[in-house]
Amino acid sequence: MSTLKTSNLQHASAASANITLASDGTTTIAAPSNIIKSGTSVASTSGTSIDFTSIPSWVKRVTVMLDGVSINGTSPPQLQIGDSGGIETSGYLSTNFNLLHNVSPAGAAFTAGFGIGVSTGQWSATVVVQGLITVSLLNASTNTWVATGTFARSDVTTLYVTSGSKSLSATLDRVRVTTANGTDAFDAGTINILYEG
Which residues contact 130 (CB under 8 A, 6 or more apart)? Predict the structure, then answer.
């Protein structure tokens, strides 16, 4: 039996080493750029915001999933994104549309995040939502992200549709689900993310 001695293994068409072997026996395998990874689910049962941080720089799409999420007041939730400088709380171009059975549709604009739910006037402590919102990198040179999402209410027959865009000052590395007024708190549900290159 022969022994191959090397510190790196690289495919001929790869830009960098796929496998790195350290002298102490540690092996590092580069993850495929298109792999989908899951965050750790968080119970949204208290607090005014839930953060997911340390998102890798190679990520091109983040999906935020809500299940059975409720808030103790009249402020709807919203998704905010950020970079190494922190979560950005302004400059969002976001519109949310409410499709309620037997009621005229209603919409609202959000500038401090991507809205989930229409507005304070359309939200209450009895609202329970589930669904997802995805942010995708549109332009890496300007760190511009576009969002689209759909959420259903389980307390009544209602669908929320949201979309928008936001440019960051640097590479995205975190997302936050928070209440629009920053004071109403989560009191039920689970939130998690998926991210991919």
Answer: 66, 67, 68, 69, 151, 152, 154, 189
